[in-house]
Each structure stands twice: as structure tokens, then as C-alpha cells.
Amino acid sequence: MTTVSSPLAGRVIGLDAVPDPVFSGAMVGPGTAIDPLREPSDALSPVDGVIVSLHPHAFVVVDDEGRGILTHLGVDTVQLNGEGFELLVGKGDSVSRGQAVVRWNPASIEEAGKSPVCPVIALEATAEALSELVHNGDVVAGDTLFNWK
């Protein structure tokens, strides 16, 4: 089982509240989403693993069991071309749960006209594979969002 931790502090809102049909429809995979605090912060790795995909606005960490977890920093933030994001690790790096991966400021993302809501997705998983999935409530970075059985 893989425990997936929150990469950010904020309010969990669930995937169905993400203002993007690909995420809200769980087309990428099941998971949940966080409406982050509007302050500069580091997005943390939700699991121990290896960074297999790294963009300023999104990253995927694959754990020892080969499970990929996507953290997407905001919606449509790819359109910002990396502005407002600072990469703190490199693709192929091993990371520990809670290690800073990307520095960003959700308030500046919102000021740029984008939603700062952050989906956290279990890639290539089924909804039935997730347990103890958090759909609402306040979280701090490092709190458990779900378990992947």
C-alpha cells in the first residue's frame, strides 16, 4: 500500500470541484484536489520515489511499487510557460515524501487569471484501488490524502 500525502497546505475540495473537465471527470485517474493557501510555498513530494516527469506546473513521482502520483499546480497553468514556478529538483532525482519539488505562489497564479486548485492524481489507478480518500477539510502539507491499495 502507498500512502499519498498532501503536497500543500489548504482546503481539500475533491476532484469533482476542479474547474477542468479532464480532472473533475477523473479521466487522468482518481484522486483529490487542494485549494491551496494563497501564499508562497513549496509543493512537496507526496511519496518517496523518483521524479519521472517534471514541468514547472506539474510533476509525477513514481514510488518503489511503480505507482505514479501526479501533482498538478493549478489549472491551465501550463499556459504561464513556467513563470511563477521554480524547480527545486531535476527529472530522474530520487525524492523523499515531504521534500520540496517546486516553489510557487498560488496568489500570483490567481492574479494571472488561472485557478490555483491542485489535483493530486493516482495515475493508471481505479477508484476502487484508493481508500481513505479525503474529499474535504483543511490540510497541512504532509497530511494523508489517500491510500493506494
UniProtKB/TrEMBL annotation:
It comes from the Bacteria. It is found in: Cytoplasm. InterPro entries: Dup_hybrid_motif (IPR011055), PTS_EIIA_1_perm (IPR001127), PTS_EIIA_component (IPR050890). Keywords: Kinase, Phosphotransferase system, Sugar transport, Transferase, Transport. Residues 20-124 form the PTS EIIA type-1 domain. PROSITE patterns: PTS_EIIA_TYPE_1 (PS51093). PANTHER family: PTS SYSTEM GLUCOSE-SPECIFIC EIIA COMPONENT. This is PTS glucose transporter subunit IIA. The lineage of its organism: Bacteria, Bacillati, Actinomycetota, Actinomycetes, Kitasatosporales.
